[in-house]
Amino acid sequence: MDGHFPFIWYNDDMPDHGHTPVLLEPVLQLLNPQPGEIVLDCTVGRGGHSAAFADAVGPEGKIIGFDLDPENIKYSSQRLESSGVPFLAIHDSFVRAPAKLAELGVRADVIFADLGFSTRQMDNPDRGFSFQTDGPLDMRLDPASPVTAADLIASMSERELAAIIAENGEEPLAGKIARKLVQNRRTLPIQTTARLAQLVEEAYGSRARTSRLHPATRTFMALRIAVNDELAALRSLLDDISRGAERIESDGWINAAARVGVISFHSLEDRLVKQAFATLEKRGKVSRLTKRPITAGQEEVQANPRARSAKLRVARMAHHSEV
Fold it and tell me: Between 37 and 249, whose confidence is greater?
């Protein structure tokens, strides 16, 4: 199934939640949560998708939500409390989700991960995710994590910085940017988002005027991915899903006919999801419900510009009889 779905604005009679769930209609249609099912929301965020899942699974179902941000966990717990649906919020990385489900003795019918950030996180200058407003160069999803973006810039060699910016950000000028950062940190530590953005723009030189994106966009993304080890976490989840698909008949953490959906926001993430689902399909373990990713239509992008880069891929576990 491919193409655009009608845009729906989910309203659960609560005030602005600081984030609009992206691609909500295709998520609900393709993952198709049913009454009584167990949903694993790997990135519960402000609870937007989980609130809709709760409506679908009802009081006989259950939502298990993971998030690294303690503010998100607190907020989503309060938001889901009124749904009447059992909701277990866990302040941890979704890397630990399979072990937690095994510990609880339950299997997931729906597995969902929205790899984006909440608007509240992006717009809060104290978190350091964005160059739109000046703030400390932090970028940690979990404020208790030990290493900030400023720490990485201060401690890494020029070669290491260039590699991170090139690999995580797919930035063609990674070498020039890393050189600029290393040269300038000698005289003054790079500790704010504004200074980092300015130095990247200077490294771009005249190209900054013709760049389609703000010159600092890819560098900020690359550092954020490194600070939170995001690609390693996604690989771990996809590996666990692959192993879970192998153990459906025994003691795994995934139910037969479970649906798995991932929303990614850049090509590195999307490539990993695409390859994992394609490999599982070749082995007869899943059916891909999206041969090409679902993207937001014009109406949704107008209402929520951050949906523009969202890509949803969904796969369904194959029954033994289908293999």
Answer: 37
